[in-house]
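Figure 6 in text form: structure in, sequence out.
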């Protein structure tokens, strides 16, 4: 197994708990962790859709880890996803102020994973 495969698998595994936190029981987990109230069907629907997006990426990253013909696309997807999340979080820091400390950790991890992904894209498989 090469470094790209390991990176894709480790990232996929790390995204699973984040996805489940957002969507499995959003009214419970988000309230407990971030003091976010999800009090109606619309809120639950939005967070479960976000969970689905995360889990779909997880599946694609795993496929990319095992199938060489989509590995490059999986790495590009990872980079776009992570740096897109980081950009949104950075915008929120500027516009909204400092969030919960765990969300700042998420920002750092997303930036780090995005940068590692970019570096791996520049190296041969």
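Output sequence:
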């Amino acid at each position: 197994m090469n470094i790209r495969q390991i990176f894709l698998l480790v990232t996929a595994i790390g995204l699973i708990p984040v996805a489940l936190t957002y969507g499995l029981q959003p009214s419970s987990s988000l309230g407990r962790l971030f003091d976010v109230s999800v009090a109606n069907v619309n809120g639950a629907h939005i967070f479960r859709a976000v969970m689905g997006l995360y889990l779909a990426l997880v599946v694609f990253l795993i496929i990319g880890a095992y199938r060489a013909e989509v590995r490059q696309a999986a790495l590009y997807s990872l980079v776009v996803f992570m740096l897109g999340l980081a950009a949104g979080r950075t915008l929120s820091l500027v516009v909204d102020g400092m969030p919960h400390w765990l969300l700042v950790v998420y920002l750092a991890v997303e930036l780090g994973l995005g940068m590692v992904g970019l570096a791996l894209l520049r190296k041969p498989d």
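Caption detail: The chain has five helices and no strands.
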